[in-house]
């Protein structure tokens, strides 16, 4: 089958006519307008940042102003809304584009009718590319309900992979602390918490959007599609619970790191205190005997220096013995 080309200048990522049986047919801009409802399921996928694509949505798609505004919105929150003409749903997936962070989640906006699907995006989503490949292979969805259920499942699968990666990073960081008390990488717990917060921010509304979408059964979504969407919603909820647990573990691990650092600092300060206590009487003796006045003992004695050194050694030994006896070190 011929792959639908990506028209970078006009924003037509792909368009397919999917019949009830048989292979899907890739479409051009001109062919999109010639498709009739009885011909099969029409899927039009657009990059709305291109002027031609946004003009088509506003002027040629036949959609209400409220729907076109949602499909062209720069920033969007996951949600699902049912209209008389169809269903509007907005979901987010992890960002797998080169040079991007996975937690910087990418939106896909979908308008579902019984015989037509319009999806828009600004940045590429691998989950949509996966569904496109299944359509090209002849094994893809053949109804609007199957389409949104498969998109949702693939989005959630990649979200779960990222959540598992964050959990693995937490396990590795905790292992380094428990194994050797290493604290040189203590900043990674703050990074884990940052990643957790960024991805969790979108998952709770996504779970609500999928749950609501699963209950919009009718001409667009059948019972099986509803069950698939509900399963996706449950998986999102499980991912949120895992993120909450990881965040709590990161906070506990951070406190443990701070305790280790405080203990190390206290040990060093304790050692310095012992050294200072040992040298305090020696400093006093050297200062007393170093005064530039008459009457200093042993000032004229040839063994006076070594006598003072001997006294200092005796004082040090006695103090160390005393400290040891008191179990201060």
The main pleated sheet reads as:
7 strands, mixed
Q: What's the helix-strand series?
A: EEHEHHEEEEHHHHH
Radius of gyration: 35 Å
Mean pLDDT: 86
Low-confidence stretches: none
Secondary-structure class: alpha+beta
The total of helices stands at: 8
Biggest β-sheet: strands ordered side by side in the sheet = 2-1-3-7-6-5-4
CATH hierarchy class name of the largest domain:
Alpha Beta
Number of domains: 2
The helix content is: 55-70%
Total strands: the figure is 7
Shape: rod-shaped
The CATH architecture of the largest domain can be named as: 2-Layer Sandwich
Proportion of residues in β-strands = 5-15%
Provide the CATH topology of the largest domain: Beta Polymerase, domain 2
Oligomer: single chain
For the record, what is the CATH homologous superfamily label of the largest domain? CorA soluble domain-like
CA distance, first residue to last residue: 80 Å
């Amino acid at each position: 089958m011929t792959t639908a080309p990506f028209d970078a200048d006009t924003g037509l990522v792909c368009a397919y006519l999917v019949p009830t049986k048989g292979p899907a047919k890739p479409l051009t801009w001109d062919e999109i307008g010639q498709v009739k409802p009885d011909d099969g399921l029409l899927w039009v996928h657009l990059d709305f940042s291109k002027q031609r694509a946004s003009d088509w949505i506003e002027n040629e798609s036949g959609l209400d102003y409220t729907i076109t505004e949602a499909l062209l919105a720069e920033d969007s929150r996951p949600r699902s809304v049912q209209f008389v003409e169809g269903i509007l749903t907005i979901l987010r997936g992890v960002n797998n584009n080169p040079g991007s962070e996975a937690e910087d989640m990418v939106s896909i906006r979908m308008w579902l009718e019984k015989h037509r699907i319009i999806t828009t995006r600004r940045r590429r989503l691998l989950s949509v590319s996966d569904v496109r490949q299944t359509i090209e292979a002849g094994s893809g969805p053949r109804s609007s309900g199957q389409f949104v259920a498969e998109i949702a499942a693939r989005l959630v699968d990649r979200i779960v992979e990222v959540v598992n990666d964050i959990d693995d990073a937490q396990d590795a960081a905790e292992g380094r602390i428990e194994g050797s008390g290493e604290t040189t990488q203590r900043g990674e717990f703050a990074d884990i918490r940052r990643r957790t917060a960024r991805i969790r921010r979108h998952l709770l509304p996504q779970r609500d959007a999928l749950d609501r979408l699963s209950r919009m059964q009718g001409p667009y979504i059948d019972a099986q599609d509803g069950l698939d969407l509900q399963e996706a919603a449950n998986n999102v909820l499980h991912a949120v619970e895992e993120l909450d647990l990881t965040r709590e573990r990161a906070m506990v691990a951070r406190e443990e790191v701070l305790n280790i650092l405080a203990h190390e600092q206290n040990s060093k300060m304790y050692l310095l205190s012992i050294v200072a206590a040992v040298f305090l009487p020696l400093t006093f003796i050297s200062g007393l005997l170093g005064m530039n006045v008459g009457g200093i003992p042993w000032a004229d004695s040839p063994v006076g220096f070594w006598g003072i050194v001997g006294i200092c050694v005796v004082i040090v030994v006695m103090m160390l013995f005393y400290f040891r006896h008191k179990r201060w070190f």
